[in-house]
Amino acid sequence: MRRRTVLAVCATLWLLTIPLASTEAQESMQLRYRPSPGAVVHTLWWFDVTSSLADGRGDDLTIEASGLRSMTQRVVDAAGNRRIVEVTRDSLRLRRRPAGGLWTVIADSGQSQATARLEVDDRLRVQRFELLAPNETGSARTGTLRAFAAGFELSFPDEPQAPGATWTADVVIPFDEPIGIEEEPGIAAWLAQASDIVARSTVTLDSIVVRSTDTLAYLQVRGTFLPTTLASAGEVAAGRARLGGAFGGRLIWSTGWQAFVAGALRYQVRMSTFSGRPEAEVPRLVLDADISTRFQVRR
What we know:
The protein has 299 residues and is mainly beta. Helix content is 3%, strand content 53%.
């Protein structure tokens, strides 16, 4: 199996290009989420995943997956610095194949629709969350709905920021999207149990660009996942799984849209599973998932 260095994130993440009407610089900017009631944003997400599963005996498996997800966020009410936002995962199309093999469709647009209502403050912090309608399979996994703005939960800083400013944050990254390997024996139950991963992260405001209709903030983010251990829901001897890794990416925030209008992200996750009691555990499987995503607001 080709090993990946999960603590290093690829530096060649390129954002989708947005034509600029002006390149006038602004000294500082206070990042805030303050859309008006009735505001609607439609976003398309593209993702590519390579997952490698190794059992230590040479029976390695590599699966490739790619897909397209559509999401809609609609502001239904506003009071002070709070917004009530309904987020719908409209559709999901996903296909997978063994490395170099033939593609097989494993999800289509009718299998993933779900809606949630969130109360969000002007720093993009989720204050309340309610699942209004699960998808057709009844799944209650909601990470991508909570992380509607950027693909992960990231709060804006308190103070205005100038270009070059850097701040630290613990961001919450949902690990509940299909990666094409969910049905594989020995790993399926652990993937079903995994949900959110916390990453100790650094965010940098690269630049601010003033346009005729809004102002754009170009952000760079990177972080390392805090070690996470999943315990078996049954007896202790049934084992555990440990997750680690890193992520990085670039985002563009628009004051006109009151949304991240484009971005590119890459996640590298390793899950190692063990059986037996902690004092005498036996390594079983190692999953390496390399996930690249990009998104853009639909005009």
